[in-house]
Write a structure and sequence with these properties.
Structural class: mainly alpha
Radius of gyration: 25 Å
Number of helices: 13
Shape: globular
Number of strands: 0
CATH topology of the largest domain: MetI-like fold
CATH superfamily of the largest domain: MetI-like
Strand content: under 5%
CATH class of the largest domain: Mainly Alpha
Distance between the termini: 51 Å
């Protein structure tokens, strides 16, 4: 009788835990469904209102100018970001940099700052004596394409450094140590061991930085302003069209931006999937 009672009690406890787990899962699924629905509505509203004007937009000289300038500035700023972020992320994770923790906090601080504030800081910098000296030497940032690129770099650099820093921290230090014991210099070890192991993360960071630069608005607006057919990127084109009441053109530009971003995200997911598969293969070995 006692054994039967224990079995019944265990079965009841298991049933209660299973029911609690089901309720918990249902709650999480309901919240996820709400978020998915909200995102779907946002995307649908852009596509529904912008698609009818796409043909007109791609025939517009102004929209084509904005697309070309957006792609150009995003590409250049992303290249600059990667050149600066790879050494910085490595220094913050793999070297004996003095005050490393404080330096890491300082580098990542802009992640928590509004982009308008970052743009304001750039505007103040290039309005100072130092900025005027740079302008005298030929680097004009305020109200120029250079300013758009600089704004993109300032906004994206902390994000890319943080992402690559996480990737470098995931590299097994024993592999680098073995490489050094076999006679490789630290530079050779970096190029032959460390960097190849994080190449998917580098590729993913590049794609995300490019996509983020394509849609950057706040810092660009503060530093460069908005001038049609001069500093007009896709986000600023949307801003100008909405300000002048041309909703159709604004939605068309938003649709183009959405489609480019979706393609970038798809490519990022493909790279991530390959990286995950390679990681599982390494774990199995």
């Amino acid at each position: 009788m006692s054994l039967h009672s224990n079995l019944s009690g265990n079965h009841e406890n298991a049933h209660r835990k299973n029911r609690t787990a089901n309720v918990f899962d249902m709650f999480m699924i309901a919240v996820a469904a709400l978020v998915i629905l909200l995102t779907l509505l946002e995307v649908w509203m852009i596509l529904f209102n912008g698609t009818p004007y796409i043909l007109q937009a791609v025939q517009s000289e102004e929209v084509l100018f904005a697309v070309k300038l957006s792609i150009y500035t995003a590409s250049v700023s992303t290249a600059v970001c990667m050149v600066l972020s790879i050494p910085t992320a490595y220094a913050l994770t793999k070297t004996s940099l003095p005050l490393k923790r404080a330096a890491k906090i300082l580098v990542e601080l802009p992640l928590s700052m509004p982009y308008l504030v970052l743009g304001l800081s750039l505007l103040l910098l290039f309005s100072s004596g130092f900025g005027k000296l740079l302008s005298h030497w030929g680097f004009q940032a305020v109200f120029s394409v250079n300013g758009i690129i600089l704004a993109h770099v300032v906004v994206n650099l902390p994000f890319v450094i943080s992402m690559l820093g996480t990737a470098f921290e995931g590299v097994d230090p024993r592999l680098e140590f073995i490489s050094r014991t076999l006679g490789a210099s630290k530079a050779r070890s970096f190029w032959s061991i460390t960097l190849p192991l994080v190449k998917e993360s580098v590729a993913g960071a590049t794609i995300l930085a490019w996509s983020r630069a394509l849609g950057e608005f706040g810092a660009t607006l503060m530093l460069v302003g908005v001038t049609r057919m001069k500093t007009e990127t896709l986000p600023t084109s949307i801003y100008l069209d909405m300000a002048t009441g041309d909703t159709g053109a604004a939605m068309a530009s938003a649709t183009i931006l959405l489609l480019i971003s979706a393609a970038s995200l798809l490519l990022f997911n493909i790279i991530n999937r390959k990286a995950g598969g390679r990681l599982r293969e390494c774990q199995l070995k």
